[in-house]
Amino acid sequence: MSHPIEPLRSLDDLRARLRALPGPDEACRAAAAAREPTLTKPLRSLGRLEPLAHWIAGWQGRHPPTLNTPRAHVFAGNHGVALEGVSAYPPEVTVQMVANFRRGGAGINQLCKAFNIALEVTELDLDRPTQPFDKTAAMTEEEVVAALNAGLCEPLEGVDCLCLGEMGIGNTTSAAALSMALYGGVAEDWTGPGSGIAGSALETKIRVVRDGVALHAPMATDGLDLLRRLGGRELAAMAGGIVAARLSRVPVILDGFILCAAAACLKAVAPDALDHCVLGHVSREPGHQALVARMGLEPLLRMDMALGEASGAALAVPMLRAACFCHAGMATFAEAGVSDRV
Ligand SMILES: O=C(O)c1ccc[n+]([C@@H]2O[C@H](COP(=O)([O-])O)[C@@H](O)[C@H]2O)c1
Ligand SMILES: Cc1cc2nc[nH]c2cc1C
Question: What HAMAP family does the database record attribute to this sequence (predicted)?
Answer without folding.
Answer: CobT
